[in-house]
Amino acid sequence: MVQESRKYLKGKGITKLINVANQIMLKNYQNLDQYKDIFYQCGKCGNCRTAYQENGWPRVCPSGEYGKFEAYYLGGKNLLTWGLNSGKLEWTENLARIFYQCSVCHACLQQCNIPEIHNYAGEWLMAMREEAVKKGFGPMKEHTLYTDHILNEYNPYLEKHEKRLNWLTKDINLDPSGDIAYFVGCTSSYREQTVALATAEILSSMHLKFKILKEEHCCGSPVFMTGQAEKAKEIAENNVNTFSEEGIKKIITSCAGCYRMWKEVYPNKFKLNHGMEIVHLPELLITEIKNGKIDLNHSLDMKITYHDPCHLGRHMGMYEIPRELLKKIPGIELVEMERNRENAWCCGSGGGVRSAFKGLSESAANERIQEALETGADAIVSSCPFCLNQFKSNIKQEDLKAYDISELINKSF
User: Fold this and answer.
1) What angle do CA 233, 358, 307 make, to 5 degrees?
2) Integer distance in angstroms from the first to the last C-alpha of the chain?
3) What is the pLDDT of residues 375-391, one digit of tens each?
4) Which has the closest alpha carbon to 137: 92, 90, 103?
């Protein structure tokens, strides 16, 4: 028997029978009009709130758990999206805040068994932010502040561009004629410089012919994630032009957000087919280890737990490579938190949340830190400096440290 469901027809209620086996296939990174016929697919069942595991139903949505109201969960946002795009609701400042009070971590999407919601709800959550900007209700004032600074000083941290490479030491062997670049990113350049230094030292130890561009700018992720697509595209175009003019063929990143922007958003959202190979540091290192070009000899004697960055995990599908790399370090014992991989709890710093919604951001971070403590690990490790900075800013217990994967690899060389 063919399963059927009903489709809402404008002005006639739910009347038309459709075959649910015929999944609607659409393109990603489109405007709201592309998705308007599938908003209704959401059944408001609430499965987007929790992840099923044998030992229970752990929570997955920081926004909903903090907001404590249906509108902050995916089901509520789906209904608001439908209402706004069917003319039944009008944009207000409060509605815009609901869509921005979300890290866009995509944990909710992982739980949905309706193909259209699972595949495309993340697209319209971002498209709704773009629509809020067009209507003049977005972004939040905090996002505007750092965006203006990015356009003038090329970073969101209100720092001077001239200080971007202050962390770089003379013993890092750079090759000005090389066609490989280390794209440092803003967080590593200004806030978590140990990540930048560890990565550069690793690449130097590998005798890799690489360079770091003095005129590296923000990748544009903080601007893109807050719905400012046009400004983010301008930033992306500038970066592509700069790196192309330098003859760069391969870019190595230590930031999950930068990695996603260069590898996924630039070509697929902004249609900037730059032709450069984009590699996240763990990808490069695990390949070199398997090829016998790197030996990790120094034992660290640590029990650690790994936190999946949303940009690297759910957004890009990279879960196992960082874990495989960590297991190559002598003396490392890797233990998993209850919520891991596609069900990992967000650290609470992405999507503009940390700047505009500090209560939500801290709540998410504290819950993840507590989960790490429950594993008995000595440290929580990630492969994103933004996650690292979030944990270091919120950890209050002396018996838990936070590291980036680059720092541990560098210690083991």
Assistant:
1) 75
2) 61
3) 999 999 999 999 999 99
4) 92
Residues of the chain with CATH 3.40.50.11810: 148-287
pLDDT recorded at residue 25: 87
pTM (global) more than 0.90: yes
CA distance readout (Å), 84 to 26, 64, 79, 271: 21, 20, 9, 28
Q: Which amino acid is at 18?
A: I
Class of domain 296-412: alpha beta
The rounded distance, in Å, linking the Cα atoms of 211 and 132 is 39
Q: Hey, which residues does 382 pair with through a beta bridge?
A: 404
Fold of 148-287: Rossmann fold (3.40.50)
pLDDT in tens, 2-25: 444 445 445 545 444 445 556 788
Strands 13-19 and 4-9: antiparallel
Q: pLDDT tens across 208-242, in order?
A: 999 999 999 999 999 999 999 999 999 999 999 99
303-359 tens-digit pLDDT = 999 999 999 999 999 999 999 999 999 999 999 999 999 999 999 999 999 999 999
Distances (CA, A) of 118 to 30, 36, 169, 204, 326: 16, 15, 46, 42, 30
